[in-house]
Structures are given as C-alpha cells and as structure tokens.
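Exam revision sheet. Question 4 asks you to relate a sequence to its structure. Input first:
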Amino acid sequence: MRTLVLDQGYQPHRIISWQRAVCMIFDGKVEVVEEYDEDIRSVTICIKMPAVVRLLRTIIGRKRAIKFSRINVAMRDDFKCQYCGVRHRLRGLTYDHVVPKSQGGKTNWENIVMACYGCNEKKSNRAPHQAGLRLRRRPIKPKWLPIVAFHVDPASSIPEAWANWVYWHGRLESDP
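Answer key, structure tokens:
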C-alpha cells in the first residue's frame, strides 16, 4: 500500500510507502486526510493505515540538482516524442541517445530525449540528421520540473481514497 502526500494547499506532492507516512505522522510532519480500511497494530496501539496525508509545513524550494530519471526526462519532454511530436503515455516512450553511444554519446540530460518506438526504430543507431529526423527541442538539463505530474491511466486502478485528490488536481490521459 502506498500513501499520497499533499502539500499544505492540498495539491498532490508525492507518493510514499505507508511505513514512511506513519513515521511522518508520529514525527508531527503530516496530518491524516484519508485512511484505508486496514489496521496497523503494535503491542500498544492500533491505527488505520494512512491513504492520504497533508504536509503541515510549507515546502521550501531547495536548490538541488534534478535527478536524472526516466520519469523526469519524460516530464521535461512533456511526454512527447522529440522527433514526431506525438504525446504518449510513459510506456509508449523510450530513451533515445541523440548522439548514439556507439558514436561516443553519453547518457545524460544533454544527450537523452524521449522518443516513440517508431521514431526510435527509424533513427536506429544513427544521429538524427543521418536518419532524416529533426529534434523538436534540444535536450537540456532542466532547472526545475513541476512538483508533481500525475498521469493516470484510466485502465489502471488507483486507491479509491486518492480519487478526490488526484482527479481534481491531476491531468488524466485517456485513449484518443
């Protein structure tokens, strides 16, 4: 089970384990907004498992590097193939090395873009110009990313306790 964390303004912030949420409750960092039906029992206490919690303090913007990860690259590229420009779900996109690794390309913010499988196959082990493709945007290391970008697949299930929070504040993608 996972727990949805809201910021002070009730906006989705992140998803954490229920164990981490319980620690945050006892540390006085969050308040419980929604609970699951399951109980958490110890020798001395019994509480409901937290489904949604809200931070009690304001999130202060930290000047730290943005982690290089598949989801962060997809967010930077707005979930669009950087060759054809078509938006996809995350599972419809793959990493693409603009300068292929075989030609000395590195796996970093400045050389990785998201590409649909068709464009990635067309590009193959070549630079975009060698494959007759053009990049929509030059890949750069972002200075910031949205605090949260929820892309909910209607076919997948999210906990019912999250529905009011994710649907009101998140962006749903549906089949065309």
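Marking note for examiners. The mean pLDDT is 84.
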